[in-house]
Amino acid sequence: MQIDFLGIQAFLAVVESGSFAMAAARLHLSQTAVSHRMRKLEESLGVELVVRTSRGIALTEAGNALLPRARTAVQQLEDSFGEVRRHGRDVTRWIAFGCLPTISARIHVPLLRRAAESFPNLQVRLFDSAPVEIAELVQAGTAAFGITLADALPEKLAVQPIAREPFVLACPADHPLAGRPGVAWKDLLGEPLIRISLPSGNSITIDDALGPLRERLRWRYEVQRTAMAVDMVRGGAGLTVVPQLSVRAADGVAVVSIAGPAISRLLAVATRPGTELREQERFLADAAAMLVREHLAEGAG
């Protein structure tokens, strides 16, 4: 059943003001328009709601039954509108952005600290999501920008490259390879390796770069998340290859650069074309990019 909200509005105005003329003034309508709305409402209900008398108007039995329900329904609707308005005002105070989990784990604390120093009252919502989800959030306008993989972005988004992030070897701190300044992929032949099947497609990036050599590597385990792979390395289960920013040389894990061939992925800031970031959004995007470059430089050193 279709709800005649205009008719209910006219009905309440007539009852509460005491006449059609006063209801028309209250609603900024003509008296004819108010009468038309009332007539349509009564026709849709199949009953008469008010009758004109010498003293003004009077409610029928059906009108008396409808009145409290109509008031309650309109009040609930007004309350809902108020909540939506408040939500809209709150949303404009939040700065939302997306970031790959392997990057946000490294930069989000110093990034938020810098943001708080420059904008003490800033409210930040971080989506640590996979590349596909970040692209969807940016496209929908839910996130102002995304720190993600350039290769994973659809053409409809604007791409601002940040830097290339190399893949590195994570091995137990007491492993023979841990003390080397760098290793080649052939040095990993025979070693138990832990493969990471991330939604970002890191395993595909590695396979494509290695070519036939990938068939000679001993992929003993496969997990879904970098954190799990690093925990397994820490426990001595094997070695893993991960993006540089996703692992630190600490807590029983050593990080070693890989060459022959070197493998990397291009990180970028994704935004919607034609949409200019607000001051706080631009600050966060620039600061995030700067932190990524700083941490990559530290790792290279």
Q: Radius of gyration from the CA trace?
A: 32 Å
CATH architect. name of the largest domain: 3-Layer(aba) Sandwich
* Total individual domains: 3
Helix content: 40-55%
What is the name of the CATH superfamily of the largest domain? Periplasmic binding protein-like II
N→C terminal distance: 70 Å
DSSP summary, beta strand count: 12
Topology order in helix (H) and strand (E) letters: HHHEEHEHEHEEEEHEHEEEH
Task: Briefly say what this structure is.
This protein is 46% helix and 24% strand.
Can you put this structure into words, describing what you see?
The termini are far apart. α2 (20-27) crosses α3. Strands 3, 4, 5, 6, 7, 8, 9, 10, 11 and 12 form a 10-stranded mixed sheet that branches. The protein has a two-stranded antiparallel sheet with strand order 1-2. It folds into 3 domains: 5-90, Winged helix-like DNA-binding domain superfamily/Winged helix DNA-binding domain (Arc Repressor Mutant, subunit A, Orthogonal Bundle); 93-162 and 265-300, D-Maltodextrin-Binding Protein, domain 2 (3-Layer(aba) Sandwich); 166-264, Periplasmic binding protein-like II (D-Maltodextrin-Binding Protein, domain 2, 3-Layer(aba) Sandwich). α7 (202-210) links the parallel β8 (193-196) and β9 (219-223). With 301 residues, it is α/β, with parallel strands linked by helices. The model has no long low-confidence stretch (mean pLDDT 88). The protein has helices at residues 5-17, 20-27, 31-45, 61-93, 101-118, 131-140, 202-210, 226-234, 279-300; strands spanning 50-53, 56-59, 94-99, 123-128, 145-149, 158-172, 182-184, 193-196, 219-223, 239-243, 253-259, 264-271.
